């Protein structure tokens, strides 16, 4: 059952392949109670032909949580949108931004920006199939197409199909010659494109994604637009989530890192008891929690040690945390 009162999308954590699984999302939820969390991209084929529970299972504390889908067949996306509602998600998001070759071979992701009418048909089919909000995450251009009209026309066409929320990764997607990692770093950021979209479509909800890391910039952009979506910085420096929560939602929010550890111990115990989840599947998302603190290197080392992780004892999280504070900060690397 969906959470009855959902917070605004002022802060969202980006869908990141191999990273934002349900264990990662539970960890992030402890740090930022109001942030919107997104699954890794799940292809329609994986849901239609694969293990639905493996892809869609999540825990109630993750709300608000969105399912991101990859696909380009309206009927398949409609089917998967129905599944999203049946499994209790709060939003279904269509990926129109991933530039990987595997995604291009499937004719979806960023290459869909070249087919706005098809995207509109996909959105219409999904909206017909579910009462959930249907949102779109996209780039601002493809390859050498950098003129504003391209993304403006894309948003206008798709919004006519009923999409009210657009998450704008403010870089072009270069479909040839760059890896997915390079596509997150090399094409220049152009935040002004997102700002212009909001000016041209004030009735739409526009979130900015791409390159945001420091709190001042995040607050500024969340103020200029409807919200921000943060990717790698949220994963690699998770404690920053608590600062962003405080800046954007709750000025009194002041969690303790030791309490976060205790929350994850309880979660790991439950996961192991109910699903046999190995501790390493959970601890791998927590390595950045002690960043900047004395003993951080020892904390990371213990939670990455295959011999220590073999026993899958949730207490290992507490033992690793005891390393924090043991060494002077100057000794850390």
Please give a structural write-up.
With 333 residues, this protein is of the alpha/beta class. The protein folds into two domains: 11-248, Alpha-Beta Barrel (TIM Barrel); 257-331. The protein has 17 helices and eleven strands. The strands form two sheets. An eight-stranded parallel β-barrel has the order 1-2-4-5-6-8-10-11, surrounded by six helices. Helix 10 (215-224) links the parallel strand 10 and strand 11 (227-230). Helix 1 (22-31) packs antiparallel against helix 13 (257-275), helix 6 (116-129) runs parallel beside helix 7 and helix 13 runs antiparallel to helix 17. It is globular and about 55 Å long. The relative contact order is 0.12. The model is unreliable at 329-333 (pLDDT under 50).
SSE diagram, text form:
Elements: E1 11-13, H1 22-31, E2 36-38, E3 42-43, H2 44-49, H3 52-56, E4 65-70, H4 74-86, E5 91-96, H5 101-105, H6 116-129, E6 134-138, E7 141-142, H7 148-160, E8 165-169, E9 172-173, H8 180-183, H9 191-200, E10 205-209, H10 215-224, E11 227-230, H11 232-236, H12 240-248, H13 257-275, H14 279-283, H15 296-304, H16 306-309, H17 315-321
Parallel strand pairs: 1-2, 1-11, 2-4, 3-4, 4-5, 5-6, 6-8, 7-9, 8-10, 10-11
Helix pairs in contact: 1-13, 4-6, 6-7, 10-12, 13-17, 15-17
GO molecular function, one term: tRNA-dihydrouridine20 synthase activity
Function: Catalyzes the synthesis of 5,6-dihydrouridine (D), a modified base found in the D-loop of most tRNAs, via the reduction of the C5-C6 double bond in target uridines. Specifically modifies U20 and U20a in tRNAs.
Family: Belongs to the dus family. Belongs to the Dus family. DusA subfamily.
């Amino acid at each position: 059952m969906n959470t009855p009162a959902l917070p605004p999308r002022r802060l969202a954590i980006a869908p990141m392949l191999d990273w934002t699984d349900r264990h990662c999302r539970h960890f992030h939820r402890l740090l930022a109670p109001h942030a919107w969390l997104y699954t890794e991209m799940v292809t329609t084929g994986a849901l239609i032909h694969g293990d639905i529970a493996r892809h869609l299972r999540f825990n109630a504390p993750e709300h608000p949580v969105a399912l991101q889908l990859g696909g380009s067949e309206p009927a398949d996306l409609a089917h998967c949108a129905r599944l999203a509602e049946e499994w209790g998600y709060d939003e279904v998001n269509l990926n129109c931004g991933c530039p990987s070759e595997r995604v291009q071979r499937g004719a979806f992701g960023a290459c869909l920006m070249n087919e706005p009418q098809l995207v509109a048909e996909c959105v219409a089919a999904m909206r017909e199939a579910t009462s959930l909000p249907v949102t779109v995450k996209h780039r601002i251009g493809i390859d050498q197409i950098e003129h504003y009209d391209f993304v403006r026309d894309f948003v206008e066409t798709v919004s006519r199909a009923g999409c009210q929320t657009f998450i704008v990764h403010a870089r072009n997607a270069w479909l040839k010659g760059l890896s997915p990692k390079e596509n997150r770093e090399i094409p220049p950021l152009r935040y002004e494109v997102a700002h212009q979209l909001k000016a041209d479509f004030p009735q739409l909800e526009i979130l900015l994604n791409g390159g945001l890391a420091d709190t001042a910039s995040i607050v500024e952009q969340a103020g200029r637009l409807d919200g921000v979506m943060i990717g790698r910085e949220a994963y690699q420096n998770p404690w920053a989530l608590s600062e962003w929560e405080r800046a954007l939602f709750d000025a009194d929010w002041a969690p303790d890192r030791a309490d976060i550890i205790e929350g994850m111990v309880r979660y790991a115990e439950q996961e192991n008891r109910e699903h046999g989840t190995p501790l390493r599947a959970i601890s791998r998302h927590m390595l950045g929690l002690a960043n900047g603190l004395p003993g951080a290197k020892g904390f990371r080392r213990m939670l990455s040690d295959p011999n220590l992780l073999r026993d899958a004892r949730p207490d290992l999280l507490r033992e690793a945390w005891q390393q924090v504070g043991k060494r002077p900060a100057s000794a850390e690397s």
